[in-house]
Amino acid sequence: MDESAIPRHVPRAYQNEIFQHAIRRNVIAVMGTGTGKTMIACMLIGYMHSRPYNPKIQKKISAFVVPTVPLVHQQADTVEKFTGLAVKSFCGEMGVEFWDRTKWLDELDIDNTHVIVLTPQIFLNILSHAYVDISLFDLLIIDECHHARKGNPIAVAFREFYHAMKPGKPRPKVLGLTASPIWSPNNPQKSLHELQMTLASTVVAVKANQDELEKHAPRPKEHIVFYRPDLIPKTTELFAALEALPHDWVVRDLLWSKIRTRAQVAMVDLGPLGMDLYLVKQLQEPIKTLVREAKLGFSLSLDIDWNLVKQLYRLLAHINVELDSSVSAAFVSPKLRQLVQVLSTHHHASDEANEESDFQAIIFVTQRHIAFGLAELLQKLEGVCKWIQVRSLIGHGSTGGIAGGQSLNEQKRLVKDFKDGKFNVLISTSVGEEGLDFPACALVIRYDVNHTMIGYMQSRGRARQKESKYVIMMDEYDPEQLEKYRVSKDRPLPQERNMLKRRLCQKYVNFEGVMAEEYRTTQGKAPKFDEHETGIDPIDQALRQTYRVPSTGALLTFERAVSLINETCSLLPTSDGIPAPAPVVEVDEISQARYRGRIILPASTALPMDKLTVEAQPRRRKTEAKRAAAFEACRVLHHYGLLNNYLLPHREHEGEEAVDIDGYLVGEDLPVEFEVDREPVWGSIWKSPERVYLTRISIDGRISTGLISGSPLPKALKFPMWTGKATEENQRSAECLSSIPLDYTAEQAHDIFFPYTERAYKEVIAHGRVIENKALLLVAPLQQSGDLDWEVLERVFDPIPDHSGRLDTFVNGPYGRPCGIDRRRPDITLASLARDVLMGQAEVDISSLDDSMTYRDYLCKKYGRNLPDLLDGLGDEVPMIEVLHLSKRRNNLISVKDAIKTTNVYGRTRGPISEILPESWLTTSFFDTSSFDHLQLIPSIIRFVTDAERIYPYAKKLGLADVKAEILREAVTPPQAVAGLDYQRLETLGDRVLQLCTTVHVYYKFPHKDEGKLHVLRRNSVCNRYLRRRAEEAGLAAMVCSERLTVAKWNWPNTGMDTRTTINRKWLQDSTEGGWLKAFTAGQALGLPFGGTDPWTERYSLSVPYDLSETSDVAEVLQQKLRYRFKNPLLLLEAITHPSLASQEVPSYNRLEFLGDAVLDMIVVERMYQKYPHADPSELTLRKQAIVSNATLGWLSVVDLGLAVHIQHNSQQAIPRLILQAMDMFKDIGAEALLNEHWEYHPAKFLADVVESIIGAIFVDVGHDYEATKNIVIPLFEKVLIASDTCRIDCPITELMAWAGSKYKCQKIRFEQESERSKKPASYEYRITIHGKTLSTRLGPQRYSVKCNLSVDAMQILREDEKMLHFCNCDVENLEEDGVTRRKPKAKSGCLDNKSPSSKMHTSNTSDVAMVFDYNARAGEVSGMNAVGLASPSDEEILNRIGQIEGQAAPIETSTRRITKQQSFYVEAIGDNIVIDDDDDDEDDDAVIMPQYFLPNETIVISDDDN
């Protein structure tokens, strides 16, 4: 850092005096508030870091420990400013309690950090949890060090770590800073001795420069102001009404016993108005909120007496808490009136002394609600309300209501505003006594009585201006208040008042003076540390043990043990707002002054039942007995892994440091994309040029073609192929027979077979294109016997003959494209009128033809530009032939129905198009019909064989060699390959298999871990990063079949093809999930934590340590309802035991619920997968979510199966009320309505948990037999499953997005969370926005429910009067979208009525309809699908819904062209667009392109186009 930028502050002589002491030894610097103690600390820090050090030795840093969070940031800024060193600050608001050692070391950045500023508890934590060693520090600065006593974190840190350092090991230098090291003047010598001993330091004060110190730290004048508490009423009408309610009533977090005490304090300090103000502020809003939540149907979180709530609501709901602009002093207490008098007097004096008043005052109180009440009342009281501006300052902690805490930012803002003069009176609790950097005030008032010498000196130190005053307010008739100032035990008489004032102030002054002299004369060494002088009973101290973790050095202390127990229990799973079970602490007095402590941990703690109760040896004091029991309990928790080796509550790691169930690191993620090396095609002849192999191909039992390759197929391959949609007549049975060797080298084979291969590629497959570079594979003609057809090979160089007139052959038409002969057309000549010939043909718009145009002219116009000589020399009477242009080449590995599901053109087929051509234009194909048919399939066959051979080695390695090749290929084909069938459906199923396998393994491997920890371990074992890493290590990247098969653009495999392929990491993860066809074997090979390859029925025995002859009435009734009798009835009892009743005899259902959840998901997804073979993954997921939702399972528990009433719990009101609420919620709700709107219902979660836990219990009871479990569970879900098969399951969010996208092209709808309430039950508030404009806001207990309701609201609003246009103009903005062609072909008019009897038409029947998308009811819904047996629309409906084919792309309703049923259209999906085309040519000049989601109120019919 540039030295010129560092502010230079010259220390005063008295600061330098203390600094010189600090250099030589450990010291405690005693100096008044505002005298610049921080400056001395900065000087010492600078000195320590200016000394040379050996870089080979560990670098040292300095620690500045401050007592409060505001001071952390304040002192960090000061140190950095004064020293120019690198400073870091740490406090609780940064979430440091969740940091592990790695995170701490990263944040500390020891190599680049010089000073850290932190609070005492954090300092103790980083030492006790062994994140750092105390030897790391070269300097410890303890601000406000007078707190270092007894159990204070600084005192513990010095006792356990500083004084425990080995002799001879360099210890950190210590500098303590305080205004008064004495807590109480009762025994000052003892207090001083203990503080010096604890900090290993000597108290020093300014001696040589005392005059200069007093000059810069003037002492305020102290005054005592007495008030007379005469005639203060005991109560108010509201207080009396609340007191008349049931004794010590409780509503949620509102405890009347505490509220009563605070209200009575408010009466004394503020008066009747203050009491009522506090009561209303504390109670009104929570009661209103409770009633409001009940009306919204929230699950109630605690046992609440609703009669009491009603009474409180009637008392409080209509009270107005707003005060008038001017309140009479008659309504406040005498104490407050006296305060007003003091403030007015000093304000008037300030006005007289200055033209512009600079009056500022600080008022110290002890309780937060008094601070708020004073601030409220002072601004409204007569006499001061016109000139006073008041704010209140309190600490961070929150106790709810009016006594809630303030954030650090609020505190800093208040202090800054006070400095800037934005208000003139600050009311503060003890948080303002020390630490915060207040400006020097002329008036400080102690409104409440001091309890400690420290409080007196710290608050007084805020009055640092010259002629400032420190005012103490005191009850004139309360001698105890005077006794606290050590004056007199007798009640003072009024005539003694002035004398008492002088004596009181003089007493403090004398005491302070005596002690100051003591500090100045103390020059000896610090007392030697003696653990028996730490304020703990010597016998108890002798019984204390040390527990240190050898592997980390973490140390367990007695003081930390209690909080560790509470932290661990707070992490136990809970739901529905029912509090987490707390540990029970018992202390028994076994004899006089001997106490035995006992900790009873909750039954849901992941410990053996006999370890839940922990006792310790007797102690002399109750507090120590409690700590000793907690200490022993912590040792037990660490032994069983509930505390980690750093002695923190165990949280399973996530991210890169996470481990799976078996303890292996999840590791770093793969890059998003990476390249792999693999052969582009199977069997290159150049890879092993010495020998080639012939693989014969059989299509429907007929052999006519074979493949010449460089490697043999290890086994025959059978697989289906398709020439149309998924019907029996369009299915072809393909088989690649076992390869046989040929006695040719690669060069010889290339010379023999390449001419035939090239001709086949050019004339049949590629329609004119040639093979580039050397071919990797060759094709050979075969006889039916499988022998090579040498006759065909010899004729391969023959010229192409003209058409012979045969109707059963293939011919080549213009441009060399293959055609089929349909029939001769003697009725047509070249002289015929073009309109008559072309009438009725969908691909031609006859309206554009001249009436006199002949057919010769038409053909010349169509082909003459590129083929000008075709018509030369042809007479008008030349024979005419009607030909059918063959369908475009397609991926024959998938059916048309599967191809329609893809969102692209690849794999689609256009139907045959007829055309009438002169016979002389046609040349007979070299290939006969059978060969031609087989050769068209070659690209798809080569792709299948390549994929199968790529997969086979890895399938064998994974134990999947006997699985069908087509299923394996589907499992490793990503959607990006656009192959129609991909891994998405298998991935949906495999995901549940993966979840179930890991769930069973983790359930039994960790029999004592709770549901939360099991969930994290399972999540680590199935997370995307983990699966990708395992797949990459197993080589699955080379298996992924990601290449697109675009047959129309397919190139014959050649030596110029790239062997490097880019793989997306998501394909690996999904392929891993998609491949669970033999789960245990594959999982073992991939290293997944499945627990082995043995079946569960053999792996886990049904060990029952109970008497199975015992049962209960509840068990008997439940078994009848479940229609299953348990071998072990206690499993059923565990499955219905709520955590509130869990005991050492019967645990709660949490673990069984975790197991049952995975079993149920697997059963449901498997059923959906098998029942709906053509449903896409989103449909499967949507239905699964509805069936296993919290609402559906709650309905089963309450209504259908009646399980809820049998839940065993220990809740007097909450759980029964939640069950009744669910009964009322599901009243008259059937299964269909529930599934369709399951997001509308949110019963208590424990109702669903019980259903899942019972399924888990059944799974265990049947010996982990999945099939047996499924046969028991499916009948229990019979009504739900039947309903799911027949009803429509919607998602309002998806519907809204689809509707907005289809009609308005809008993708700018967002859900934004407004707030997430921390109180229980949790609630979520979201707003829905369109282009940033808010449309609606909703509040609810579940995120998904809130979003769904918002979507419904939005649809209702936006549909009305086209209100969407007020929010969105995307439809206009997107007319020219980047990257999307939106052409508008010229408008064409006319009518095609199929009048020509000679025209060959292609009828599209309704039976050919594959899928109808109807947006009339709900956008995006599939309303008809023949494949699943749903009703198809009528012919008339289909024809009416098909819009304009040529002309404007949108809107479809503007069409003036009528389309008849007998026309064929070619519908393709390319990207996000739909293309509708009339003809089969490669040009899109006459195609209509529109968004795929289309328009509302329209239907797109996609029909089979192969007929």
TrEMBL record:
Classification lineage: Eukaryota, Fungi, Dikarya, Basidiomycota, Agaricomycotina
Protein name: Uncharacterized protein
